């Protein structure tokens, strides 16, 4: 079943894929990386003026990486704000997604954290650099196939 936003995008010829609804009834849409920036601008103009959160995760070891955007349409006098979740999947071999920093400035540190932990490059981001790990850190700690350098497991540590 498609939600109202998915129908609205389809009527205007904007390519996306509906992933259904989450447990709270929020519509989830999949957008291709190359379409993200234009659809982000369209959603902002349509009224989704608040980026509630941006996060990223590793879908499966050796598989895709995902960047997730939770958007809210805030309007004066409306009791129940409209929300939508946008997911963008990218290959781990060259994970590149356009930054939405120029649409929603609040994504600044969130995209930087996703870069730092998973290695997703948000191109056109003005200050994309590590913020949690030292610049000398090798690898992406939240990837499921990550092996920590110099890691020694403690056996029978009870």
From TrEMBL:
Keywords on record: Chloroplast, Membrane, NAD, NADP, Plastid, Plastoquinone, Quinone, Thylakoid, Translocase, Transport
EC identifiers of the protein: 7.1.1.-
Recorded GO MF terms: NADH dehydrogenase (ubiquinone) activity; oxidoreductase activity, acting on NAD(P)H, quinone or similar compound as acceptor; quinone binding
Assembly and oligomerization: NDH is composed of at least 16 different subunits, 5 of which are encoded in the nucleus.
Major site of localization recorded for this protein: mitochondrion
A Pfam family annotated for this UniProt entry: Complex1_30kDa
Source organism per UniProt: Arabis alpina (Alpine rock-cress)
Name the record gives this protein: NAD(P)H-quinone oxidoreductase subunit J, chloroplastic
Catalyzed reactions: a plastoquinone + NADH + (n+1) H(+)(in) = a plastoquinol + NAD(+) + n H(+)(out); a ubiquinone + NADH + 5 H(+)(in) = a ubiquinol + NAD(+) + 4 H(+)(out); a plastoquinone + NADPH + (n+1) H(+)(in) = a plastoquinol + NADP(+) + n H(+)(out)
């Amino acid at each position: 079943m498609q939600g109202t936003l998915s129908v609205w995008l389809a009527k205007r010829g904007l390519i996306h894929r509906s992933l259904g609804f989450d447990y709270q009834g929020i519509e989830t849409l999949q957008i291709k990386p190359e379409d993200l920036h234009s659809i982000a601008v369209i959603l902002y103009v349509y009224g989704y003026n608040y980026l509630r959160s941006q996060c990223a995760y590793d879908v499966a070891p050796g598989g895709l990486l995902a960047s997730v955007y939770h958007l809210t349409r805030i309007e004066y006098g409306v009791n129940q704000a409209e929300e939508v979740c946008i997911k963008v999947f990218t290959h781990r071999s060259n994970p590149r997604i356009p930054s939405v920093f120029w649409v929603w400035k609040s994504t600044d540190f969130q995209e930087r954290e996703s870069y730092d932990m998973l290695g997703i490059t948000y191109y056109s981001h003005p200050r994309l650099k590590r913020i949690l790990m030292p610049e000398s850190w090798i690898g992406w700690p939240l990837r499921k196939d990550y092996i920590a350098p110099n890691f020694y497991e403690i056996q029978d540590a009870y």
